[in-house]
Specification:
Layout (H helix, E strand, L loop, with lengths): L4 H5 L5 E2 L2 E2 L3 E2 L5 E2 L10 E7 L10 H6 L23 E3 L5 E3 L6 E2 L6 E2 L2 E2 L5 E7 L8 H17 L4 E4 H4 L13 H8 L16
Parallel strand pairs: 3-7, 5-11, 5-12, 6-11
Antiparallel strand pairs: 1-2, 4-8, 6-7, 9-10
Helix pairs in contact: 3-5
């Protein structure tokens, strides 16, 4: 049973186009069209984020993704001043789900990246940010929401891979980090091991 079952049992898709019906929809201006040459959207990328690092539930991540963050509100924000990024989804520590970009569109979450023999992972991936600090653990509610979301994404898109930001940009990014339990997610999804990242990752090129 997943949090989408009630919708599906009622004969209603969890999707409204590329928007998930159970997510709080807050459109970001930071997106673009997926290149026609990019192929199928077959990769889910898991990230972690908190602003300032280690502080949760203050709305700063949502503000960053919508270009409304007050850069003067905290000294740390000066380090990222002017940054324009987005993710398709954000999962709070409570498990609450937010969506910023239509999944049919290209969000700005991966940066320079390469995975499964293809570069520019923004072009053909869906990004999910978990509220958390790189290297620390995540909440059970986040794993539940993440597993359900991945199942729903795979029902709409031909998902063949799921990886962390650390796997698509090794040496440049380290999230979600060693505190993320990939085995727990795999057990919840019951997806074959080949869809998940291997323990060792080749250097980023």
């Amino acid at each position: 049973m997943t949090i989408s079952d009630d919708i599906q049992d009622a004969g209603v898709s969890p999707w409204d186009g590329g928007w998930h019906r159970l997510a709080r929809r807050v459109p970001s201006p930071n997106f673009g069209q997926r290149p026609v040459s990019s192929g199928a959207v077959d990769l889910i990328v898991v990230h972690s984020i908190s602003l300032p690092p280690g502080e949760y539930g203050n709305g700063a991540v949502q503000q960053l993704f919508t270009n409304t963050l007050n850069w003067d509100a905290h000294p740390y924000f000066q380090r990222i001043r002017g940054l324009q990024v987005s993710s398709h989804f954000f999962v709070e520590r409570t498990g609450d789900l937010w969506q910023f970009v239509d999944c049919d569109q290209r969000a700005w979450h991966a940066g320079p990246s390469s995975y499964r023999g293809r570069s520019n992972c923004n072009d053909d991936s869906i990004g999910i940010e978990l509220e958390g600090l790189e290297g620390l653990t995540f909440e059970p509610a986040q794993y539940r929401t993440l597993a359900t979301l991945c199942q729903d994404i795979a029902a709409r898109y031909p998902v063949r891979h799921i990886a962390g930001h650390e796997h698509i940009a090794p040496g440049r990014k380290g999230d979600p980090g060693p505190g993320f339990d990939w085995a727990e997610l795999q057990n919840a999804l019951q997806w074959q091991a080949g869809l998940f990242p291997q323990k060792s990752t080749p250097p980023f090129a």
